[in-house]
Write a structure and sequence with these properties.
The chain is of the alpha/beta class. The protein has two domains: 2-57, Winged helix-like DNA-binding domain superfamily/Winged helix DNA-binding domain (Arc Repressor Mutant, subunit A), CATH 1.10.10; 67-252, Rossmann fold. 35% of the residues lie in helices and 27% in strands. It has nine helices and 17 strands. Helix 1 crosses helix 3 and helix 5 (75-86) packs across helix 6 (101-112). The longest helix is centred in the first third of the chain and has 14 residues, at 2-15. The chain starts with a helix and ends with a strand.
């Protein structure tokens, strides 16, 4: 029966990070087409994330982790992502960068690269990086300070962003799903980040560790097709074929 089979698929996904259609079909002694239909049903219910030839379980993030906790997680990967992002920046760029521990590393790497750029950000966590000798110019959006995220957001942030058109954007996420898009547990952060993307005339890069793949949080920032490229760590290579199929570039740090 389809319902029982779909329950079994979910049980398998609880134990395994991802599964292939062919593997499920063999285990359950049904056709690949039958499994694809089951996965379509589960995807429509928001329970699984479809991928090229398979699926993974949708993970949810309903609470916002504090900044210090996030900063200590996957720190090596975040530094590598930051350096990869900085390598894509050119002198004269105006860049929108939102809040987050990965985007902190992006800003740090750009400052360390000594490129003459303008960074527009709501990431207050970068204050310790500022110095009179740096070549980068930083514009803070202003807004209401949120200590848990070391960021500012709200109407003041949006009014500043309304006056800016960036040549690039580097956007951190709490969750990245090809089907559900870029998500975050905080509505104000979603609104501010969406405005940054809307005010970018060049490429929009989503920057995140592979741990964010398949995670869906409470508030959507934008659909995944609003992203030009992703920069993630080597573990994210499982996304490559799916990203290529929808025209999103991928960089692995």
């Amino acid at each position: 029966m389809p319902i029982q089979r779909q329950k079994e698929i979910l049980n398998i996904l609880q134990q395994e990070e991802a599964v292939q259609v062919s593997s499920l079909a063999q285990r359950m002694n049904v056709s690949d087409l039958t499994i694809r239909r089951d996965l379509d049903v589960l995807s429509e219910k928001g329970l699984v994330e479809r991928s090229f030839g398979g699926a993974s379980l949708v993970r949810t993030l309903s609470r916002e982790p504090d900044y210090s906790t996030k900063s200590n997680q996957y720190s090596v990967q975040k530094k590598a992502i930051g350096k990869a992002a900085a390598a894509l920046v050119e002198n004269g760029d105006t860049i929108c960068i939102n809040s987050g521990s990965t985007t902190f590393e992006v800003i740090k790497a750009i400052i360390d690269s000594e490129k003459a750029v303008t960074i527009v950000t709501n990431n207050i966590g970068v204050f310790p990086l500022l110095s009179s000798s740096m070549k980068a110019k930083i514009i803070f959006t202003g807004g209401v300070y949120r200590s848990i995220s070391h960021s500012v957001s709200g109407p003041m942030s949006l009014s500043v962003l309304d006056e800016i058109y960036a040549s690039k954007a580097f956007i951190g996420v709490d969750g990245f799903s090809l089907e559900q898009g870029l998500t975050t547990p905080i509505q104000e952060e979603a609104i501010t980040t969406k405005s940054m993307i809307e005010h970018t005339v060049g490429k929009v890069f989503a920057v995140f560790t592979a741990s964010k793949i398949g995670v869906v949080s409470n508030f959507k920032t934008v659909d995944s097709n609003k992203v030009s490229a992703v920069i993630t760590d080597e573990s994210g290579k499982r996304l490559l074929s799916d990203l290529t199929n929808i025209g999103i570039e991928a960089f692995f740090a």
